[in-house]
Specification:
Keywords: Disulfide bond, Lectin, Membrane, Secreted, Signal, Transmembrane, Transmembrane helix. GO terms for molecular function: carbohydrate binding. It comes from Perca flavescens. This protein is 28% helix and 23% strand. It is α+β, with helices and mostly antiparallel strands. The chain folds into 2 domains: 50 residues; 166 residues, no CATH class. Helix 3 packs parallel to helix 4. The longest helix is centred in the N-terminal third of the chain and has 43 residues. The radius of gyration is 26 Å and the shape is globular. The termini are far apart.
Length: 243
């Protein structure tokens, strides 16, 4: 009887301890879950898909849910012929998700590289070799347009330029800057407005307008992200520059 009584007492103590521990966990986890839900609803729900894509940059998909192995953040849906360079350009999403520029299935500008920023993001490459020459971003809301103008003027003939907007690309964009970008082959830069989304690939010395350009107008009646339009993207093959 003593053995049974002691066993019951120990078992009761263990049950009481487990119950108290469970209550403590619930007191911590439930408020945390409620707070996280509120924050997600207030700040990230409109951008959850794009934010996930940004956070997953550089990570490979794995597990049974994946349809196919991923090569990283710059998968191309098609191969490019010889004497061409593959590219992928995606604009920013509102002021939350930074833009992304890829070359030859390699990320060359984006949040994970810490070289993207609000305004106009630019990557220039050597049109003959496909090597990256420069990456830069220019704040066109609270910054100065002069560094952008100087950057555009410094480009050498035969250079290829890839551009992507983030947040606002146009407030400080003056006529000189617009003209210089138009000379690279852009048509949309002339009408680029406040918080419009824009992606573009052109070249210094190009004699025709670029076929690689998309433009999404900021329209409060159609915007996907409240005060910003949805993100846009382009991909394709850039032919090598020939003298």
């Amino acid at each position: 009887m003593l053995t049974v009584t002691v066993g019951k007492t120990r078992m009761a103590r263990r049950q009481n301890f487990s119950a108290k521990l469970l209550v403590k966990y619930m007191l911590v986890l439930v408020p945390a879950a409620v707070l996280l839900t509120v924050l997600l609803q207030k700040y990230t729900i409109p951008f959850k898909d794009d934010l996930w894509r940004a956070l997953s940059d550089g990570l490979q998909k794995s597990g049974p849910a994946s349809r196919a192995p991923s090569k990283g953040p710059c998968d191309m849906v098609r191969d490019c012929p010889d004497e061409h360079f593959s590219f992928y350009v995606r604009s920013g999403a509102a002021n939350v998700v930074a833009p992304k520029i890829c070359l030859r299935n390699k990320l060359v500008l984006g949040s994970v590289l810490n070289n993207a920023g609000p305004g106009i993001n630019i990557v220039t490459i050597n049109g003959k070799t496909g090597d990256v020459v420069k990456t830069a971003h220019f704040d066109m809301y609270s910054g100065d347009v002069k560094p952008l103008v100087e950057f555009l003027k410094s480009m050498e003939k035969g250079a290829v330029v890839l551009m992507a907007s983030y947040d606002d690309p146009s407030t400080k964009l003056d006529e000189e800057a617009r003209k210089l970008i138009a000379e690279l082959g852009s048509l949309s830069v002339k009408s680029l407005g406040f918080r419009d989304n824009w992606v573009f690939v052109g070249g210094k010395g190009a004699s025709v307008h670029s076929n690689f350009e998309k433009y999404q107008k900021n329209d409060s009646t159609k915007n996907k992200y409240e005060n910003w339009p949805e993100l846009i993207e382009i991909q394709g093959c850039i032919p090598k520059y020939l003298d």
